[in-house]
Amino acid sequence: MKAVFSACALALVAALASPPAGADELGDLVNKADMVYRGKSAASVFDMTIKTRTGERVYKVIVWSENGENDRVLIKLLGPALWRGFGTLKLGNSLKLYDPKSNHVTVVSHSMLGDSWMGSHFSNDDLVKETRLDRDYKIKGVSAAKRDSGLGFEATFHTLELTPTPRAPVVWGRIVYELWEHEGAAVPVKVTYYRRAGDQKPTRTITFAQVRKFDGRFVPASLQVSVTDKPGEFTRIDYEKLKFDVRIEPEKFTEQALRH
Amino acid sequence: MAGMTRLAWRNLGRNRRRSVITGLALAIGVSLSVASFGLIDGTSASLLRSLTRYDLGHVQVHTRRYQATRKPEELISGYARAAAALRAVEGVIGASGRVYGYALTSRGQRSAGLEIVGVDPRLEPTVTELQRRIVRGRYLEPDPTPWPQGRSLSAEERARDEALTRAVEAGALAELDALEPLGPAEGGAPAARPARPASASELAATRELAEIQAPAPRRPPRVILGAVAARILRVGVGDVVHVSARSLDGSMRDADVEIIGLFETGTAQIDRRMLLHLADLQHLGGLGDRVHEIAAVIDDPDRAPEIAATIASRLGAPELLVRPWNQIRPDIQQVVDSSRASTMVMIVIIFFVSALGVINTMLMSVFERTREFGVLKAIGMARRRIFGLIVAEAAVLVVVSALLGTGLGLCVDLYMVHHGIDLSSVTGGLSVGGVGLQPVLHGAITLEGLLLPTIILSIICVAASTYPAVRAARLRPAIGMRET
């Protein structure tokens, strides 16, 4: 009798101490989807198409990244000639830009974090910030339904609403995250960012498309970011090759490699 | 009337000491008022001057959306024609176009985000007086930096560019393919496969193709830098600074610039700027011949709203917004207005105290002369005339003292105009609403400042003298004559 009672008490304490299992699962889903291009480490080659009011240009880009305690990322532009050799090195919270024409490395200061990266619709801050969505946001499931994924199997499509926890150091007031889940894999479909929680119009939208297997994982080969303020403009990334969990020599993440 | 005035003057002379003391008190009050008006007007004028002649101008033209958003793509096209139209408006002394940008500047380990402003060195001195605030070196040169325009690639060059990119890409893909997976033996010797080194011919071809599209300037563009910015970057005249500015297409453009002068205005916002030739910044930012702003200076700042309206109708472009300085910086207009109003309040208080002195003097005088007024009334002098006599005595006293006081105040004003009050020992620098003031305050002489104290004092004191005057007029002759 006594044993039964203490077992009940223990179960009660455990139930109170841990958050509802549902929220945890959703957090895992969002994290997995958000890390879809990462892994312990990753290397990729992609085209970045930037369409603005003044014109369109395409960068050929190679990215090396190592995710862990301190994220380390090296981005180099492979072409065209006007941009070849431009580089960006991220070590934890610091961001450096390299311009081969003047052979100059610029350390990005706080005031420049909001500026666009290389003229794209991504900001420097998008590269630096280390937001863990499940840590900084409260996640609420809006809908979940089984549908055809377009890849020959049915997947569970989730729509999740993320609102920042109090005092979380984030810029968005609300994020609507659409993703699908299949056998432990989570793939983002569309992410809508709202500056303030009550906004009707989103500030920006990232749409993912052309899910393919890269290195054994389901990954959208194309993603496009558009900003509501700038209709008709967008930045699109089309992956050509993605390698996950590869060994990258530490020399890749040095200023020497940035200038190389 | 002349007889009355003479009589009043003589009556004042009967107790000369009392009249002189009261008169002196009034005179000092007036001179102080004149002097404080002089100082306030002078300070306001120099505030306005700092605001308009170092930066703003009196009237500014922007596109409507630039004013709201300050987005760099909100540009005025047809600048040369618009500026010419501005200069043709009556009252406009000078007009000049400007381009604004933001740049990360660095030298060695030190860097700073600065506002960079492109100005036309030939026209800008007709609007702002920054050239007088050069503390080291010299002002901008009239000619822009020789800087060839880029062109887009020809079909053949584009094909070469694409082939080059494909070659580099193939190397990158091969590098990716050769990567080894993170094995359990992590921490062992890393895969030592160096990245494919760029060949010399590849580098040369890249440089050539880039130079066609975005040629480098023939020499570093020459700039002048604000003193605050120079302190942050620890640079001086002759130093070369790296500038990374955002161009209109959103990408960063880099250039090395040479500092040829330093300026200091006392306004922190301006002293954190870098100024360069309009054409150079237009080139760097890819703006063509367009500008963000046209600033004009006019002959009389008070006419700014009226002239702004004329300019707007002359330009006839609904997408352009023409604003006078007091609409751009209403806070400064408020500072000017409120300092004047507070001086006015102070003057009125001083004069009420003075009025008490006048009442006292006139009452004493009336009481002393009870018998005299009794006799005057008995021989048939009208009440009205006795009333008038007392008021006239007060008026003569006030006017004579006010003239004296105005003269005295004018002397103080003249001193302040020519020498000023040096506050540099008390304060390092003054600023109002972010607009820096010179630490030496100068006075200004205005007709209003000279006459207003006299007018206010006369009204208050003459009004105050009606009380003793009524008492004298109401005196009953029999009672008055009984007094000894």
List the helices and strands and how they pair.
The complex is a heterodimer of chains A (260) and B (484).
Chain A: H1 2-17, H2 21-34, E1 41-52, E2 55-66, E3 72-79, E4 87-91, E5 94-99, E6 104-107, H3 124-128, H4 133-136, E7 137-148, E8 154-164, E9 174-182, E10 185-194, E11 204-214, E12 217-227, E13 234-244, H5 255-259
Antiparallel strand pairs in A: 1-2, 1-13, 2-3, 3-4, 4-5, 5-6, 7-8, 8-9, 9-10, 10-11, 11-12, 12-13
Chain B: H1 2-14, H2 16-56, E1 59-63, H3 64-69, H4 79-87, E2 92-107, E3 110-119, E4 134-137, H5 155-177, H6 200-213, E5 222-226, H7 227-233, E6 240-246, E7 252-263, H8 268-271, E8 273-277, H9 278-285, E9 293-298, H10 304-315, E10 320-324, H11 325-328, H12 330-368, H13 370-378, H14 383-418, E11 421-422, E12 430-432, E13 435-437, E14 440-441, H15 447-474, H16 477-482
Parallel strand pairs in B: 3-8, 5-7
Antiparallel strand pairs in B: 1-9, 1-10, 2-3, 2-6, 2-9, 4-7, 5-8, 6-7, 11-14, 12-13
Helix pairs in contact in B: 1-14, 2-12, 2-14, 2-15, 12-15, 14-15
